[in-house]
Design goal:
By secondary structure, the protein is an alpha/beta fold. An 8-stranded mixed β-sheet has the order 7-8-9-6-10-11-5-12, sandwiched between helices. Strands 13, 14, 17, 18, 19, 20 and 24 form a 7-stranded mixed β-sheet that branches. The termini are far apart. The relative contact order is 0.08.
Length: about 550
């Protein structure tokens, strides 16, 4: 028999316009539910358990705290392990909002459209199992959209930059935000935030398991440091009943320690096989730019130091990675203070849309600002940038590179046969640059201030015999660092800065051995000690192992 009061013959749903006669007890219950989302969720919501089927939502204490956090704050961010009921808890609150608040417009967004629709399906399942007297009448009910007769709506979509553009929402719920591809995360978030900024009570709710040092990581760390308005909520795996040390050991055996640390301990580990060690990446601290204009981010203004009666300018170097300006790869540069060690990143530029015609002017203006900085440009695909700097803008401190006679590329002071206006990124240059970049960062000889650069380093991973950005990520700022790291190995660079970073690191390692009180061992096995030339430096070595002897230490100090 067809129920005329049901929505499209679904006996579990009430259609719009149907009048319900409330008992006194139902009125009292309705008022309790309307005042307290936690009471509503634990009393009337049902969920599907993999072992028991449809059961009441018996909430754990931390799930009640999650709902209260969402209810009491406009901006909430939750860091949580896998399989802790975070989605179900969030759905419970969204369901309460749509039922007991008129004209709510809610967007459920996830890294994949299918996941967003699965979340809406959980909402619909909980809705269908409510008593009729708690339901609002249904206007629209499908896989991507629900509209109730009280004017409340909820939609499901993927986290694309156009997902909610042009709309006006009371609540935007972002699920697994750490898994939004890095190359669209910023663009997406910039399109989402204005959607809720027009109201005084509108909300953004972000829930995710960590996935490296991306935008979710930045929002979380900024919230911890109180640099933004988000309230944080962290869930530990041990807060779930039944998860103890025995469960932990079994889970690690069935997966891996690294996977457990990321997915259950909620550490921001990021990718594996990164150029920079995971431990070091977690120690890198970013700072906010003090000034930003046309995508140039400045972290430290150019410095002039008093030197007696004279002004001694700090030395700066700009290394440039060039793209074709077609909204694919980005054109990028790093500005480095090279006056002393550790070298320091003081400004960056990063854009996917700027053309090779306009890019030289940005470089020129930045270089002039930073005391006529030395500039080294990558010229593989677009030599036009370096040529414009040299020929049209007549910039004098453009570094040239010598190549010829099948010799490796070398930084050059002037023009001669075989001189080019920049650096060609070859496998050899990249190999030297990557090796030296690892040494500089892990040896605390290169300080990185820019978050986007740190984020790219977390996804700059081993690929066959080289390193590159993992799929869905960018490495333009990192490649600019690779060029800088190659630059620091060049003889002409060492003459300009009057120091040799490799020798400094070698001496520090030797002094560390002395400080630790380890005895020096001289092993004479009859083989002649070799002096191996690595990147222009003399390193003490023997066949079969390194010997840190006083002879080498004194030699390095006197060179």
């Amino acid at each position: 028999m067809i129920n005329k009061d049901s929505y499209r013959d679904n006996p579990l749903l009430k259609k719009a316009g149907v009048q319900i006669k409330f008992s006194k007890e139902q009125v009292e219950e309705y008022m309790k539910c309307a005042k307290d989302p936690v009471y509503f969720a634990e009393t009337y919501i049902k969920i599907v358990n993999v072992d028991q089927g449809l059961i009441p939502f018996n909430m754990w204490p931390f799930q009640k705290d999650m709902i209260r956090l969402y209810h009491e704050n406009r901006f909430a961010i939750t860091k949580c392990p896998r399989q802790v009921g975070k989605t179900t808890t969030s759905v419970a609150y969204l369901l309460w909002l749509t039922l007991f608040t008129d004209s709510q417009n809610i967007a459920v967004l996830a890294n994949k459209g299918s996941l967003a629709r699965d979340i809406l399906a959980k909402y619909q399942l909980a809705y269908e199992n409510l008593p009729m007297w708690l339901q609002q009448g249904i206007i629209t009910w499908n896989k991507g959209n629900v509209e109730l007769e009280n004017g409340s709506k909820i939609i499901a979509a993927s986290t694309s930059s156009s997902a909610v553009r042009g709309g006006s929402f009371n609540v935007v719920f972002l699920d697994e935000f750490a898994f939004v591809p890095a190359n669209i995360a910023n663009e997406f978030f910039n399109s989402v935030y204005p959607v809720i900024s027009s109201g005084k009570s509108t909300k953004i709710i972000i829930v995710s398991t960590p996935n490296g040092m991306n935008l979710f990581y930045k929002l979380w760390m900024d919230a911890i440091a109180k640099k933004n308005g988000y309230k944080t909520f962290s869930i530990h795996w041990s807060m779930v009943p039944g998860r103890d040390e025995k469960w932990k050991e079994e889970t690690i055996k069935n997966t891996s320690l690294e996977q457990f640390r990321q997915e259950f301990e909620c550490e921001f580990l990021g990718s594996t096989n990164t150029l920079i060690s995971g431990e070091k990446l977690q120690q890198l601290a970013y700072m906010d730019a003090i000034y930003e204009h046309d995508k140039v981010k400045i972290y430290e203004q150019p410095i002039k130091e008093a030197d007696g009666d004279n002004q001694k300018d700090h030395l700066y170097a700009i290394t440039v990675d060039v793209s074709e300006g077609r909204n694919m790869d980005c054109s990028a540069f790093n500005v480095m203070d090279i006056s002393h060690t550790p070298y320091k990143q003081v400004a960056t530029y990063h854009s996917s849309s700027i053309s090779p015609v306009l890019f030289p002017t940005v470089i020129y203006n930045t270089a002039k600002l930073y005391n006529d900085a030395y500039v080294l440009v990558e010229i593989n695909n677009t030599p036009q940038v370096a040529e414009t700097l040299h020929n049209d803008l007549e910039y004098e401190n453009l570094w040239k590179v010598f190549t010829g006679n099948k010799k490796p590329q070398q930084l050059s002071a002037g023009f001669a046969r075989g001189i080019q206006l920049g650096l060609k990124m070859s496998p050899q240059v990249k190999r030297i640059g990557c090796s030296n970049l690892k040494m500089l960062i892990e040896g605390d000889k290169l300080l990185i201030n820019d978050f986007d650069t740190i984020s790219e380093l977390t996804t700059f991973v081993a690929e066959k015999n080289s390193f590159c950005a993992e799929e869905g990520s960018n490495d333009d700022l990192v490649m600019s660092l690779v060029i800088f790291a190659w630059l620091t190995t060049q003889t002409y660079f060492k003459e300009i800065v009057s120091h040799d970073i490799r020798k400094q690191i070698q001496l520090e390692r030797m002094n560390q051995v002395d400080d630790e009180g380890l005895p020096e061992m001289i092993v004479d096995d009859g083989r002649q000690m070799e002096l191996e030339l690595i990147g222009g430096d003399l390193w003490d070595s023997t066949v079969g192992g390194d010997t840190y002897g006083s002879f080498t230490r004194d030699m390095l100090r006197n060179m």
